[in-house]
Amino acid sequence: MALFGDATAPTGRTSLRVGVDFHLVDGKFQGSRTHILELFSRVIAISPDIEFFLFLDRPELLLNLSRVFQQSNVQAIRMPAGNPLKRLYWDLGRFSARYDLNIMHTQYVLPHVGRCKRAVTIHDVLFETHPQFFTMLFSARSRLFVRHAARNADHVFTVSEFSRAELCRLYGVKKDRISIAYNGVDYDRFATVADDDNAVLAKWGLKANQYLLSVGRLEPRKNQESLVLAYGLIEANVPPLILVGQRDYGFNNVFAAIRELGLTERVRVLENVDDRELPALYRHASVFAYPSFAEGFGMPVLEAMAAGTPVVTSNTTAISEIAGPEGAILVNPADVEEIAAALDTALSDQMLRTRLIAAGRERAQSFTWEKAAKIVRQHYFEIVR
Predict the structure, then answer these.
(1) 16-184+368-384: what fold?
(2) What pTM was computed for the model?
């Protein structure tokens, strides 16, 4: 793998040269970052006949994330972080010409890349349907750029049937121009108890099967505030609630709810959990709760099901599609009492817990990154055909 922009054209031409905007890898842990790393490590692994150029500010990060990124058909190119308009309309354009790319693959938005074909992954358009959960600037910018990307890309990928239907409905994109490459889960990683599980629990002061867990950025859309309010309605002897996530837009409501309900001793927020520690936290939770208002997919739900933890989640948007009818207890995220009742049931009804664990594990095994990788690879060749 070549680093810091010192890539050169190979002596033996591969069948395709694909550039991928990897700038999200430089940022905070979130679903889109996980999607890029997991999906493209699989696409690269099954595509020795494709040369990949990965553009990000810190290429050295890839050295420790997967051996696949060190293969000879991968070149990581330094693209300085900064103004997104510069990245879209200057950096990616000049890179597509310099490395003679056949395809440039980006997330959500389309760069200007001359005659190079363009693929885009649009995970969701929630800024259109749920603007209250985003800043006005983000919503306005996204409506402009994402709509343009959906209508002008040579091919669009998305991560759920829900998101594909919304792209068709809102932007008039024909269904056959959109492929669903579902997010996957590394089932073995989340389902297999590891030697260091006890060390992870000890680090965060937790005991196995004696805490409720929620994972996701602290923001109004993820609805941790309602989760805290629901938790406050349950009897005081229930296990503590652990919220894992970094602060984001509108995070103050979560902390305010914890203080106002006097739950500072029972609700803990862990903001610096390493991604490698998450499987252990999932595996040993009594219940996983994710009452998000809206998702284009809902990756934490899939990870919790793979880990064998009973799940309480929302019946809205793509979340019920991912959980399936049997994989979780589905609730109205706007109904605090319904969330509380579901949490109480998931904690106390042992027969239901057993069914949820079995059904969740079975459901999770149907979502694999390998399936998504094959879809992406197939469409790369169709785009340039």
Answers:
(1) Rossmann fold (3.40.50)
(2) 0.91
